[in-house]
Amino acid sequence: MARFHLRCIECSHKYHEDPQRLVCTRCAAKQEPGGTIRGVLEVVLKTLPTSWPHFRPSDPEYLYAFLPITDEGALPSLPIGDTPLLEVPRLRLELEMPNLYLKDDTRNPSGSTKDRASLLVVAKAVEYGCDTVATASTGNAASSLAAVAAAAGLRAVVLVPASAPIAKLTQMLSYGATVIPVEGTYDQAFELCIAACDRFGWYNRSTALNPFTIEGKKTAAIEIAATMVPNTPDVVLVPTGDGVILAGLAKGFRDLEEAGLIPSRPRLIAVQPEGSAAIVRALRSGADEAQAMPEATSVADSLTVEMPRNAIGCLTEVRASNGGGVEVSDEAILNAIPRLAGTTGIFAEPAGAAALAGLDAAIEEGLVERDERVVLMITGGGLKDVAAAARAVQIPEPVEPTLEALERSLESYRE
Ligand SMILES: [Zn+2]
């Protein structure tokens, strides 16, 4: 018997599992070129665990319990997830927030939350007998797919803007992916990937379009909730580009509530850069759909999208959670990198540090109270974009190897 079916988030039509099916046929008729994905499908598991499993969250038994996997043996042999929920005492003191936590997803194998989605998509590709998985990506999803595909012995084809940070490009190539830098934006790479998968018969991992990307990312919510038992988080702040990480967290908390494992769901707050804020603007205006932001730009490359591909699902989830959205400047994002690193020991890429910048804005706007249980999703590590992080620090001049020169240099730190 099938363990799950797929349900359209727009019209609720149900579909059986089918390797060829990515979106709802009815709603796909409304698809506009370059627009948000119409007819995004979500996984509905027939049964969910009614008690917390006695395994580590990265164990195949744990993943099988919560994810739509048919064959446990299809899971790549690469431990993903099971990242710490940190209590960050110094940042708590600085912000006067005694119940602040960081979900440190920089510790995934390729250094970002995207590994959670890649794990499930690659497992499904193995189940379906596909030997090539492709994705469009701003960078992290591509390096993540490349890593997980390497562990599983599949070919990864990744289409990324040629402007992607060099560390991410180097990562993908080192993992052995077929890397196609596209002269254009992420949005253009996304459309090209759809056409290429149609032409060459590749399995498409592109975020939002593949229903298993949202489903895979829900494991972060499950881990947060499991770590906090008997408490539950009040608010989770989520750096947001296409809206899939937020939708994945929302799906995880919904599944847990349905299973009776948590009494209520947290409010979800989308954090976007000012230069790429289509979802937050739709939240503010009350619109059902996001309007594209042509020429979207931000220092947080992972969050830079003209049209968020999962805008419909993301807007629905934020509103259903009674959450909200905040915009943050590039300057605030850059300043948050050393602030986060210097108080917690966690070095995040701009997109990850955006969660901390977003917290300041959310407090100011009254979306978060200081005594609430607040979780910041730190979605990617700082080594992925050192050039951006370097803009927020000053590398000191070299000194002669003498004590006198050292003392003079130390003086500058006292200023
Ligand atoms: Zn539909």
Write up this protein:
Helix 6 (166-174) links the parallel strand 7 and strand 8. The protein folds into 2 domains: 4-76 and 112-209, Rossmann fold; 85-111 and 213-390, Rossmann fold (3-Layer(aba) Sandwich), CATH 3.40.50.1100. Helix 10 (244-259) crosses helix 12, helix 11 (278-285) crosses helix 12 (311-320) and helix 13 (330-344) packs across helix 14. Helices cover 40% and strands 14% of the residues. The longest helix has 16 residues, at 244-259. The chain has 415 residues and is α/β, with parallel strands linked by helices. The strands form 3 sheets. The chain has a 6-stranded mixed sheet, with helices on both faces. Strands 8-7-6-9 form a 4-stranded parallel sheet, with helices on both faces. A 3-stranded antiparallel sheet has the order 2-1-3. The protein is built from 16 helices and 13 strands. Zinc ion (ZN) is lined by residues 8, 10-11, 13, 24, 26-27, 39.
